């Protein structure tokens, strides 16, 4: 209960208790901030998102054939789950209480023409209580750039009505170099078009990508690497200003996914070095 002296203190003002912990979100509304705070830990400002949406373009990718067996046991260690509505409804327990970053575009597969996507209905996101919406943006891909930027813009318009943050996923065009100039350009385009979070790849000069992006940048893991290398990428990305990871294959294709996600979590949130993280991985994996 407030003491009498508290009541006398600046009675016409309300004490501002906190600086908001997510980059670029200070002036957003309460609903946006609440959802972003479910994704980005308010204590560390970081997140470990677990991505397992690969099936919508790749079918049953290695490690994702049985999501009930491979992904569900990892849920307690993730800060946020990124998946499609099909997997969410069929396989993810609704009482897991983890925030969901819902794949909000859908389209063509690896067998035809990647990135020919269209948005899903915003009402689906509301029904599924999404904390964020993920949209692919194919900068530098002549055939799909315009459509995917329009998808982002459309989804941002819808999501803003309901205070749902949007994650822009930068897809790599075949003709472009995987460098800081390209990832910086793609990330900035996502943010300029209204994305509240950007997902891109780690690269040399990554600090420039982060510095020029007005919203948090999280990194994708990409193809499976040896665990130590994947932890090094996480560590370097965090050191260069990333707000976390949105990782899939380097977790669920690991020899011990439960150990790997915990090691990634410790690198991201506790600042463990790659060596310490790898030791933790080996210990939890029982020496594997
Ligand atoms: C595809 C995605 C994937 O979820 C993303 O690439 C993360 O997975 P990985 O760490 O396996 O690369 O966004 O659109």
From TrEMBL:
Entry protein name: 3-hydroxy-5-phosphonooxypentane-2,4-dione thiolase
Keywords noted in UniProt: Acyltransferase, Transferase
EC number(s) on file: 2.3.1.245
InterPro entries (UniProt xref): Aldolase_TIM (IPR013785), DeoC/FbaB/LacD_aldolase (IPR002915), DeoC/FbaB_aldolase (IPR050456), FbaB-like (IPR041720)
GO terms assigned for molecular function: acyltransferase activity; fructose-bisphosphate aldolase activity
Endpoints of the signal sequence: none
PANTHER family from the UniProt entry: 3-HYDROXY-5-PHOSPHONOOXYPENTANE-2,4-DIONE THIOLASE (PTHR47916:SF1), FRUCTOSE-BISPHOSPHATE ALDOLASE CLASS 1 (PTHR47916)
Organism, as annotated: Candidatus Parabacteroides intestinigallinarum
